[in-house]
Write a structure and sequence with these properties.
With about 230 residues, the chain is of the alpha/beta class. About 35% of the residues lie in helices and about 30% in strands. The chain has 8 helices and 10 strands. The chain has a 6-stranded mixed sheet with strand order 6-7-8-3-9-10, with helices on both faces. Strands 2-1-4-5 form a 4-stranded antiparallel sheet. The longest helix is centred in the last third of the chain and has 18 residues. The radius of gyration is 18 Å and the shape is globular. It binds adenosine-5'-diphosphate (2 copies).
Length: about 230
C-alpha cells in the first residue's frame, strides 16, 4: 500500500549537511497500524512527509497504492493526496473558526457542494463523537477535543491512509489513551491504514501492529511489535 524503496534525503544548511534519510526502504500493508519510533532528529518526520510528498527524495521511489508519487504531475499529486489524511501534534486548526469550518476545509478546497460537505461533516463528527460541538469555536475546546477535530478533518475526504505526526505528544495520558482508542477504531471499523511517528514506546505498544526503529536516518530494526520487543 505504501512502499518506500531506497529513499535518501540530505538537507544542506549553512552549518553543513544533514543526512535525514539514508537508503530507507519501508513496506506498509493495507490495514496496518505501522509505528515509526526514534529519538528527535532520527528522520521520522522526513520519512512521514515523503509519503505525501511534502518532501521529495534525492534518491529512491515512493509508491502509494501502486503509483510512483515522485513521477506524478502536480495535478495527479493533488488528487492522490486526497487519499492521504494527516494528523498533527499541534493540531494545525484554525483557532478562530468553528469545528464545522475546520472539518469542512478539505472539501471546500476541492469545491464540493454544500449538501455534500454538510453530510460528510456530520458523518465524521459522529465518528469522533463531537456532534454537539459542530458550531463551537476551536478556542473553546480542550486539547483532546481539538485532536478529535484534527482527526475528523483528516477523514473528510475518505482517505485510505492516515499519517499521524506525534498525534498524542501534546496530550496528557488519559486524553492520549482516548485518542489512541479512536485511531484504533478508525483502523478497525473503517479499514484505514495508519502510519504514525512517535518517540513514545507506549503508543507503539498500545495500537501498532508493526514497528520500525529509526536512528540517524536509518531503520535499524523492524517487524511485528510483539517480535521486535521480545527479541533477546
Ligand atoms: P525526527 O522527526 O525524527 O525528529 P526529522 O526528520 O525532523 O527527525 O529530522 C531529521 C534530521 O534532519 C534532523 O537532523 C533535522 O534537524 C534535519 N532536518 C529536518 N528538516 C530539515 C530542513 N527542512 N532543513 C534542514 N535540516 C532539516
Ligand atoms: P520534529 O519535532 O518533528 O523533529 P522540529 O521541531 O525538529 O520537528 O522541526 C520543525 C520544522 O523545522 C520541520 O518542518 C523541519 O523540517 C524543520 N527543521 C528541523 N530541523 C531543521 C534544521 N536544522 N534546519 C531547518 N529546518 C529544520
Amino acid at each position: 500500500m505504501i512502499t518506500l524503496d531506497g529513499v535518501s534525503k540530505r538537507y544542506v544548511t549553512k552549518n553543513g549537511t544533514v543526512d535525514a534519510l539514508v537508503d530507507v526502504s519501508l513496506d506498509v500493508d493495507q490495514g496496518d497500524v505501522y509505528g515509526i519510533i526514534g529519538f528527535s532528529g532520527a528522520g521520522k518526520s522526513t520519512l512521514l512527509r515523503m509519503v505525501n510528498q511534502l518532501e521529495t527524495p534525492d534518491a529512491g521511489t515512493v509508491n502509494v497504492n501502486g503509483q510512483d508519487l515522485t513521477a506524478m504531475s502536480p495535478r495527479e499529486l493533488r488528487r492522490q493526496r486526497r487519499d492521504i489524511g494527516m494528523v498533527f501534534q499541534q493540531f494545525n486548526l484554525l483557532e478562530t473558526k468553528t469545528v464545522y469550518r475546520n472539518v469542512a476545509m478539505p472539501l471546500l478546497i476541492q469545491g464540493a457542494s454544500k449538501a455534500e460537505i454538510d453530510r460528510r461533516v456530520d458523518e465524521v463528527l459522529k465518528i469522533v463523537e463531537l456532534e454537539d460541538k459542530r458550531n463551537a469555536s476551536i478556542r473553546q475546546l480542550s486539547g483532546g477535543q481539538k485532536q478529535r477535530v484534527g482527526i475528523a478533518r483528516a477523514l473528510t475526504t475518505q482517505p485510505s491512509i492516515l499519517l499521524c505526526d506525534e498525534a498524542t505528544s501534546a496530550l496528557d495520558p488519559k486524553t492520549t489513551e482516548s485518542i489512541l482508542a479512536l485511531l484504533k477504531k478508525v483502523n478497525r471499523e473503517m479499514g484505514v491504514t495508519i502510519l504514525l511517528i512517535t518517540h513514545q514506546m507506549h503508543v507503539i505498544q498500545r495500537i501498532c501492529t508493526k514497528v520500525a526503529v529509526m536512528e540517524a536516518g536509518r531503520i535499524v530494526e523492524r517487524g511485528n511489535v510483539l517480535d521486535v520487543f521480545t527479541r533477546p
